[in-house]
Amino acid sequence: IGMRTLISNLGMMGKVTKEKTIDDLEMTVVRCKPETISVLCKSTKFSKEEIKRIYQGFKQSCPTGLVNENTFKDMYCQFFPLADTTQYAHYVFKALDKDRAGAINFKEFVMGLSVLSRGSPQEKLQWAFNLYDINKDGAVTRDEIFEIVSAVYSLLGHCAAPHPEDQSAREHAARVFQKLDLNNDGIVTYDEFIETCLQDEDIVKSLNVLDTVLD
Questions:
Q1: What's in the keyword line of the UniProt record (predicted)?
Q2: Fewest beta carbons less than 10 Å away: which of 43, 49, 72, 213?
């Protein structure tokens, strides 16, 4: 259950209708000012044909070219009807909404999909850091880790494999934070986050980011 599943399904819903899709993407909806195909190809790891296919699916699901948070949550519920997705979808939405406009446009959507599906380990971790940095101040606190871990617990529910050492989401978050906070100053910087995760795969698994968010 995760972000890659959601946006892959959303992005691949439509089939390409050649001229119409090309014209739509080159001209696009004025309201959201999307990028042209060539610009998006340079900004992502998708080919022109892939961009067009993803755009077709995106447009079918989001005719205005913008996805607000309520719509995003509804889409998450549609793909994962048995899960409690509310909080998790909220945080993922905030991570995708790079310009903090309160809506996700096609550029933000396709760039997020590119990182999650084809990004390097460091690019994926950068995305994960942005997810955990809820208030976008450039650092992650113990409470922020707890908020995301709690959302993941709610998302997985009874589907989560039991971990006897994980008595609660708060204990889980505390252990993760202790490992990430290298200098014990009460916050986790971007450098600390990346350095620790690249050196310790167990941290990544404990974060439930690359296993849960990306699958």
A1: Calcium, Metal-binding, Repeat
A2: 49
Dihedrals φ, ψ of 30, to 5°?
-60, -35
CATH class entry, domain 121-213? mainly alpha
Domain segments of the chain as ranges: 1-12+39-118, 121-213
Residue identified by tokens 């892959």 is 8
Widest Cα–Cα separation across the chain: 57
* Cβ contacts of 129-133, under 8 Å, gap ≥ 24: 129/190, 129/193, 129/194, 130/95, 131/91, 131/92, 131/94, 131/95, 131/209, 131/213, 132/193, 132/207, 132/209
- The pLDDT tens digits for 163-199 are 444 568 888 899 999 999 999 999 999 999 999 998 8
Q: Locate 83 and state its tokens.
A: 């899960």
Q: Are 35 and 108 in contact (CB under 8 A)?
A: no
User: Same CATH fold, 121-213 and 1-12+39-118?
Assistant: yes
**CA 11 – CA 210 distance, rounded (Å):** 20
